[in-house]
Write the structure tokens for this entry.
Amino acid sequence: MSVEIWAIGGGKGGSGKSFLTSGLAMYLAGIGKKVTLIDADLGGANLHTILKIKKPQHSLTDFFEQKVPLSDIIEETGIPNLKLVTGDIRTLMPDSVKYSQRLKLYRHIKCISGDYVLIDLGAGSSLNTLDTFLLADKMITITLPEITSIDNLYHFLKKVLFRKLNDFLADHQLKDAAKDAWKNREADNIKTIKHLIDHFKNISGEVGRLLEKEFSRLNIHVVINQIRQNPHMETGASIRSVIIKYFGIHAFYGGCIKFHDSLWKYVDQPEPFLKMDASKPIMEEIAAIAQNLMQNRQLKLSDISHEVQL
Amino acid sequence: MSNNDLEKYYKVLEVDYDASDKEIIRAYNHLKHLYTSGSMATEPIDNEWDETDKQDILQKVQEAYEKLISLAPEDRKIEKVPVEEEIVEEEIREEDIIEEDTDEEVMDEEEIVEEEPGPVEAEPAGQPPVVEEYRHHEVPEVHIEFDDDVDAGAGPHHEEANQLSGILTEEEEEEVEEEEEEEEEEPILEPESEELVTEDVEEPEEVEDSVEAEEAEEAEVVEEDTLAEEFIEPGPVSGNTFREVRETRELSIQELSDSTQIPAEILEFIEREEFERLPDAGYLRWNVTTYAKTLSLDPKECADEYMKRYREWKKSSK
């Protein structure tokens, strides 16, 4: 069985993507899974910092510029079962990565041996990020319970779906059809990305059917970070509902992480924070999320305690 | 109800195909609140969304809730994994986790489809199908109560809700009639549900027995009551019954509250029958059911009996 790829993206900077990615990776490695972390936050790589690797020997820059095979730039982290591909930290031109180079990277990622590859995508929604997200077996997004962060997440999802639709249509000799339909959306009463996708689902038999199938396979896993009060736990279920009803794709509420005020004290310590005793409560929350993700389960509304009904 | 319909309703409520009553009620309340009042999850897309889109969602949610909650969990179960999980299972088929189950699952599905008009027929002839009959009658009851609840609380669905309960009553009648036709040997039902649906509940003989039970008749009821083996005292169930059983089990209110997630004071109100302080009927029924389950009492019977007392109180207080 080939390696399972998890990508963590979406949401705005500071919502905890790198934190969640490294936490999940450490949990999986801790239960004996062979894990490779890839820092694909082009231009903002910092997983090596979180894992306290002072001088990474290699990075994705070597892969892109020196054509070093990916397998040669995977490094040990000092944590059993956990390896790391450091991000593109030595380039000053993160946008210069060509499409063909990206395709090569994806091919190499799929050939990595082990159980899991976790990719930290970083903020933003460049084509790089969107394509890598779509490549993953598990698409994971993390957001804070704040409107700005959720807004960002939705923007990201819209672009992901539009990219997916574009790619699909291009593969079926309908290049630019999605763009044209969106430009003329008023004529077809298309208001949202869901309407746009539905518009193409309804055209010409076979393509529509394939499109439907393709989109029904998408499943977004939502994680909420820095929860400060109980009602915010339900926000994950609400976002899930919006993804299902507004975006028209499957979604799971993967779980949530509480706001731990004491965290900042430990970030600058020489040891990786998540290895320290102080991080135990957080690691428990991350473990629950990891278990949900592994088994395609979710945090159910009925498992969230609440005060008085209604 | 066909499996397709069931699937549709589960998806609308965004719950698993084996969701419990509790999960369904929770999902319903969550969605209703989310698409009525909004939240930070809907705010970013509010400007892209018409009011009619939300109304459409709310209507579907309402329908799905009413259909699913009217069926007993075993009657609405779909022996099939949700679409999301199917994908995964395809991928891990090599690990033959599901291989054994697959055949059974398919068979179950077929069985369910064949049995469609009602699982009543599947019951051995000797045993009166008490639970199923109750369940059918219970449907409008739940709705009426819950609609009251809606009226008193949020309010906006007043008319709609009343209409819905009317429609459902008619559907119930049809269902009842259909069953009668197919089930000549056991004419338990008398479809006189035009008037108050609540009176319907008292139609089956079994219920009459247990309701009007004199002490002498009680023994008989126990014999008939094959379904509630653990049910301790057949006959009228009151708040006192709960307290007595709880005390013989040496359970404190707090312990019960911890295991049921029902606030301690609600449990106390239930025991003391302080109806005016209790949440409205939809929740009350669920609370009582949960309470009964936790005490290993027959949840159905207890809830039916208790809700009858609640309704009597409500009638007299009006």
